Amino acid sequence: MSFAVDNYFNKKFHPTNYNCWDFIRDVWMDITKFDIGCRTPNPSTPKNKIKRFMAEESDFIKVPELVDPCIILFKRNVGIPHVGVYTRGRVLHISEKGVKFEHLEIAKLGFNDVGFYICKK
Q1: What domains can you pick out in the chain, each with its CATH number?
Q2: Exposure check for the chain: N or C terminus, fewer CB within 10 A?
Q3: What angle do CA 90, 28, 101 make, to 5 degrees?
């Protein structure tokens, strides 16, 4: 069975029970058949440590440009970083406003930096 974006539009965001990290875990598993669950930061990871976690403390590898699929880390000067999965030319992500599947130019509005990552297997 192939990956179906439509299967994700019924997902509901919850800050502690099902956030953007939980969402990308499900999406990544669906696309790659690889579970990144143990590689995602847990709820106690301090907000300012997320970037370091992605760079140093996990099996994520930063790549210089978009590849399909990849995980996108959206960063801002203040506030919690956000993540989504780039696939089929768009970013699939979840927030308080629901699930979106949109072009990167739209998804990155409000963020000052983005990083692209793949996961070591």
Answers
A1: 5-119 (3.90.1720.10)
A2: N
A3: 25
Q: Which of 120, 97, 121, 117 is nearest to 109 (CA)?
A: 97
Burial of 103 (0-12, 13-18, 19+ CB in 10 A): exposed
The DSSP letter of residue 79 is: S
pTM value surpassing 0.90: no
Q: Are strands 113-119 and 60-63 parallel, antiparallel or unpaired?
A: antiparallel
Helix or strand run (H / E) with residue 64: none
pLDDT tens digit sequence for 48-63: 566 565 655 567 888 9
Residues 25 and 40: beta-carbon distance below 8 Å: yes
| Assigned token pair, 4 | 């179906």
Interval 43-101: pLDDT, tens:
556 655 665 656 555 678 889 999 999 999 998 887 778 999 999 999 999 999 999 99
Phi-psi region of 36 (alpha: psi -120 to 50; beta: other; left: phi over 0): alpha
Strand partners, 74: 82, 114
